[in-house]
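Entry 14. Ran structure prediction on the chain below.
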Amino acid sequence: MDDEEASSFECAAEYSRFKKFFAQEYIYEMMRLNAEVSQALITVRLRRVHYVAMTVARGLYEAGVPIDLTLTSGAAAGHDLGKFGCKPNERVPYLHYYYTNQWFNNHSMEYIGHIAANHSTWDLEPENLSVESLVLIYADFRVKQSRGDDGREITYISNLDEAFNVILSKLDNVDEVKLNRYRFVYSKLHDFEDYMRSLGVDVDLNGHPKKPEVLPDISLRNAEQTVQSLIAIGSGGMLGRGLGNSIQKMLYIPEPENDFVFPIVVEELGFVGGLVVLVLFALLILRGYWLALNARDKFGALTIVGIITLLAVQVFLNIGVVTNLIPNTGISLPFFSYGGTALMIQLGEMGMVLSISRQIPPPKHD
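Output, structure tokens:
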């Protein structure tokens, strides 16, 4: 990136220092000399990782995703610098992250260094990584190396499926636990790629990204959202994918935080979690009508009936829509759907019900 383009990003000053030290210390030239001696094509790999990372990063930026291109560019260009710090008796795949971090820290580049040095800690908490880290991990995952018939090293850009198989073939002591961990990471990267593809990012690297589908207003959409809702409910199984691990909320289901929040709950918490939510609503509704029957006066009884009936109708309509029992109505799910104003009103209504219930005299005991 040139200085003019970089100046609009938060890490522009750090990126400028990176380019300065990269040139002053002849990093690129040393890589070329290393390639002549060892036949290790680190420069080729760095260029291709940087190309993949910046292609998808620019696509995300153009799609409105808040991503720092200077952070992405610097980390992609410097993520393998630590390989030159490894000593002959040290294993490069394990220690080059440490030496990469040392180089960036010595040059006071904390932010770029953090992304660059941690580009393979992705099997720990991938859902908590920044978008810049995800982009570098994705790019590093896709750029692979093999050897040709003449024994010379070949660096190429693969798809995710091929990259996953290459990684598995290079791992040490692969047991079922380790295999499942890498399968989990692969699935997360696949979700990330699907998300980028839905935004029109050029993940195929052919210069012709597919235009993202422009969805009509929520009230005019077709049955696709209902189908995606049913997929979410069905894929949750008995116990769900785990809290926060929904796949359908990644732009498959429109309004996953509003009208279609219940399918996400079922996908993450399973049939058991969804049943618990429905039982809690049922208990709240039944208790509300019991309070209305035992209210001290008609005004209190009618107030509770109105509030509880409104709640019951909302719950029925929302669950009916997401399970395809009735057409889409655009009704939110009380206490779950996003919206601070609606939540405050619902809590106020529950406060009124509780206030009326306090006036009910306790039952007399003989």
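The chain has a mean pLDDT of 81. Will compare against last week's run tomorrow.
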